[in-house]
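Chapter summary example: a protein plus calcium ion.
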Amino acid sequence: MVVVWSEARCPVSHRASACLCLGIAPPKSISAYLPIVPKQPLTSIPSVNSIVTRLACVLTASWLLALVQPSLAAEGAAPSTSENSLGMKFVAVPGTKVLFCIWPTRAQDFEAFTKAKNIDRKWADPALGPTHPVVNVSWKDAKAFCAWLTEHERKASKIPEGSYYRLPTDEEWSVAVGIADKEQGPTLSDKMWSVKLYPWGEDKRPPRNFGNYLAEWMVDDFEKTSPVGSFKPNAFGLYDMSGNVSQWCEGLLDPKADERRLIRGCSWNRSGYPYSWSSYRAHGDLDHWSDDRGFRVVLAKEPLPDKP
Ligand SMILES: [Ca+2]
């Protein structure tokens, strides 16, 4: 079973209740839940594992579609979202057991946290607006935000008992950018080099207004960060999974470097080969921050795996 709150609380025979428990509104098109399948040469023969993984994703999508089918809306529309008390919007990503925030955590979201905790630290670039992604935050800052948000939303009865916010795992990120069934190898480094695809295709440069990348590329009009949601979302309804800010994740890129945490995605300041590959990984020290790195949260129920 793939979706977090379905089994115990939401029997399939009670579809409306299931949707409420999932915390999501129904999707509007099954195509929005299918994995992104990059172009392949005609001579490329998918592996058995690849076929099985794709089939599992399609079955998951079918199951989810069946769950919410009574409220299906117009074909081709974006997936519907749920919203927490800060106005952060979440969407289901089939193939994961979490709900993804559709955009990176905004400056205004993080400010709610710093005000509530009376934290006086210069984390924001004064030139940025409230709907820009928060930057200059460390992995520890991101995790502290998640802990506070969990407590805040539980008190407001906005999330089911036992649910909590955290950062995406490496595997969840790969599913959310549509490459989980393509990556191969025992290590994250192996996986990174096994899929050399940009989210826009095989060209080295993205088309105009695909996202927020290096200013010198002139594909967008933003010198630094851009407000979240400024560009088109991916197939799952997620914004800024490429460009704008790179994002902290759970887990380690190098198991021997336990003081460094995984980072996925490229940014306005770091784009190109290989930074813009959907499979690109980096890592940073627990306390390090920069003006091109933020974070995205997911809403989970199951405990974090031992090796996320
Ligand atoms: Ca730019």
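Key point: Residues 12-74 form one domain.
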